[in-house]
Amino acid sequence: VHGPLLPVVGAGTRVPLAHGGEIPYANLDNAASAPALTAVADRVAQVLPHYASVHRGAGYLSRVSTALFEQARAQVGAFLGAGPDDVVVFTRSTTDALDLLSRAVPTGARVLVADVEHHANLLPWQRSARTTVVRGGADAGETADLLEAELATGRYALLAVAGASNVTGEVLPLRRLARAAHAAGARIAVDGAQLLPHRRVDLGRDGIDWIALSGHKLYAPFGAGALVGRRDWLDAAEPYLAGGGATLDVGHDAVRWASGPDRHEAGSPNVVGAVALAEACATLAALPAGALEAHEAALRERLVTGLGALDGVHVVRPHPEDAVGVVTFTVPGHPASAVAAYLSAEHGVGVRDGRFCAHRFADALGLAEGGLRASTGVGTGSDEVDRLLAAVAQFVTTGPALEYGTTGGHWGP
Ligand code: PMP
C-alpha cells in the first residue's frame, strides 16, 4: 500500500451509500478541486483572527494583514522562480488570470493556441480575430510539433499552452516550446492549473513568460489564484478592474493608474486566500526533490494498468511520454454520467464525468458523449485507487443488468 504523500483535510470523511450505510469517501477528483493541505488549514486558522483591510489602514491589524498579503505574494513568486522583471498578480483563479493576460496583449499582436486547451485557456484567446487555433496532434509531442511549425512563421507575439492537460494528464514539453517561441520572437504563457499540483516550474530556468494558477487545484481553498510573469505588458495594459487601490491619483479630468500588481488588483483583496495559496506553495516546495513525481507516477501507473486490465473499459491515451495523475476512461455502451453516479452511490468513489470544459479536445478524443476522469493528488493513497478499480470492475460485470433509478437516485436491478 502506497499512502498519501501529505496530509489533507477531510480525508476519510464518511459518505452515504445508496443502499444504506456509509463508507470513507474515495476522492479521485483532485483535478477538479483538491482538498486543502492540513498545513494550509492550520495557517488559515492562524491568520483568520488577525485580518483587516490591507494597503489602507494604519491600524495594527491592517499593517499585519498588509505584511501577510505581501509576504504571500513573495512566497508565490519564489515558488515559481519569479525574477525582478516579473510580477505576481493575485486573481480569483486560473480563468481570471488568463482573462487578465488576454486583455494585456498589445494591440495587433497575434496569439497561437491549440484546440486541446481547457476553455479557460481557449475562449479568452479565441474571441480575438488575431488568434490562430491549431488542431492538436495524436499526442502531446505531436501537438508541440504542430505549434512549433506554426510559430516558425514568425507571425506570433504569444503562445498560450496548458502545462498539463486536464483531460489526458499529458505534460507538454514546455522548455522546448519556450525555446521555439522565443526563437520566433514570441512569448509563452502557461496555464499551470493542472501542472503545478504535480510538477515544479521555474520561470527563469524553463523560459516561461507567464504562468496562471488556481489555489483550489493546488491544495488551498477556492477564490485565490495568480498570474505570475513579465510585468511589461501588464504595466502597459488597461487595468483589469477599475476601482480603489489601482490608482495613484484620481482627478477631475484624469486618472493615474498604479503599475505592478496594484494596477490589476482593484478592490479589497482576498488576503486569506492569498496566504492559503502561499502556504500550499511553500509546503509543496519543501517536499524532497522527486517525491511528488514518484508519488504521482506510482498512482498513475496503478490506475492505468488496473483500468487497462478490465474488459469493457477503454482508457484514453493510456501511455503518454509524460503525464500527471489524470486518467480518462470510458465504459463503452454506458453513459459516463451513469457510471459516475454508480461509483458514487454504490461505492463512495468520486470521479468527474463529462467533457471536462475542454469540448473541442474531448470531441477529438471520441468523448463527445462524455468520459470519466480519475485524478490523484498528494492526499491520494493506493487504497483509493484500488477501490475505484474494484468498483469499475464490479460495474462492468453487473452494470448491464443495472438501471439507474430516476427516483431515489440509486442503482437497482
Ligand atoms: N486550466 C485547466 C487545465 C484546468 O483544468 C482548469 C480547471 N478545470 C482551469 C484552467 C480553470 O481553473 P479555474 O476553474 O480554477 O479557473
UniProtKB/TrEMBL annotation:
Which keywords has UniProt assigned to this entry? Aminotransferase, Pyridoxal phosphate, Transferase
One Pfam family name from the record? Aminotran_5
Q: Which residues form the Aminotransferase class V domain?
A: 27-388
The cofactors it requires, by name, are: pyridoxal 5'-phosphate
Which species does this protein come from?
Answer: Kineococcus radiotolerans (strain ATCC BAA-149 / DSM 14245 / SRS30216)
State the Gene Ontology terms under molecular function.
Answer: transaminase activity
UniProt protein name: Aminotransferase class V
